[in-house]
Amino acid sequence: MVDVDSFIDEKIDEIATEVGDANAVIALSGGVDSSTAAALAYEAIGDQLTPVYVDTGLMRKGETEQIAETFDYMDSLRIVEAKDRFLDALSGITDPEEKRHAIGEQFIREFETVAREVDADYLVQGTIYPDRIESEGTIKSHHNVGGLPDVVDFEGIVEPMRDLYKDEVREVARDLDLEAIIAERMPFPGPGLAVRIIGEVTEEKLGVAREANHVVEEELEEHDPWQALAAVIGKATGVKGDNRVHGWVVAVRSVESRDGMTARAQNVDWETLQRIQSRITGENENVARVLYDVTHKPPATIEYE
Ligand code: XMP
């Protein structure tokens, strides 16, 4: 474990020296990693940093509002409303890697527009150690590692947390007085709810996924999982009233992990699982079934795509 206080001082100095009088941008996702990197860089260079939050429409319930509130102290914060453009870009795509690619491409387009507008020479990124390892092994493409550096001809890439593990990042976040909810928040993937939807991403599936993830996060908070989620994995027959319906199947997953590279499915009690089932099916009449995923990583991954 790194010494957090000296890590922060050191990185603030490093960033200020490297960026000098130039401008920098960072893609702020609202996750622990990019939030911490943005807060660190903002300490170092203030409004020379433009944090860019792209509302892809693939984010968790209330996320955009929360970002706006948490980072309200940064005058340079930009919130880009891009939901419709992302849904268009994803239309008709079912292959997992193609989905990630389409999201990455659209994201780059949105980000590039702002980076050019503010004349940014530096790119700050919240890359952490496991991102680099998994990308090297090409287990799956992480859009927070590839792509962005090629957008604009940046003079430099600043990755203050490239050697940290997730739990170390949380320590840093806490020390930077990021709101508790950010410091404690479960990790959330860059491509958002799209990797929790099997097949094409549609507005309807997104609505089911968003509500179900909200229920799961709320109900499992006491179990303190490393990450808990819900995914829309297909359709199956169910009964609503007197009718047979063909409704959505939602898989619930809750895992314990240190760094996301391996994970254990959590032993969640029956009552909690039933409460989750009842809320998800009750709040959305198009959900026919709720399943609990008991698979560890490996052989499964944490996300569904
Ligand atoms: P998997 O599904 O590979 O996920 O077991 C491991 C951890 O990484 C997160 N994840 C991502 N994070 N961009 C991210 O920033 C991504 O593209 C991405 N894909 C997965 C996942 O939520 C888990 O914490």
Short précis:
The protein has 305 residues and is α/β, with parallel strands linked by helices. The chain contains eleven helices and nine strands. It has two domains: 181 residues, 3-Layer(aba) Sandwich (Rossmann fold); 97 residues, GMP Synthetase, Chain A, domain 3 (2-Layer Sandwich).
Walk me through the structure:
There is one protein chain. This protein has 305 residues and is an alpha/beta fold. It has 2 domains: 4-184, Rossmann fold; 196-292, 2-Layer Sandwich (GMP Synthetase, Chain A, domain 3), CATH 3.30.300.10. It contains 11 helices and 9 strands. The strands form 2 sheets. The chain has a 5-stranded parallel sheet with strand order 3-2-1-4-5, sandwiched between helices. Strands 6, 7, 8 and 9 form a 4-stranded mixed sheet that branches. The structure holds xanthosine-5'-monophosphate. Xanthosine-5'-monophosphate (XMP) is lined by residues 140, 142-144, 187, 189-191, 195, 227, 260, 297, 301-303. Keywords: ATP-binding, GMP biosynthesis, Ligase, Nucleotide-binding, Purine biosynthesis. It catalyses: XMP + L-glutamine + ATP + H2O = GMP + L-glutamate + AMP + diphosphate + 2 H(+). One of its GO terms (cellular component) is cytosol. Catalyzes the synthesis of GMP from XMP.
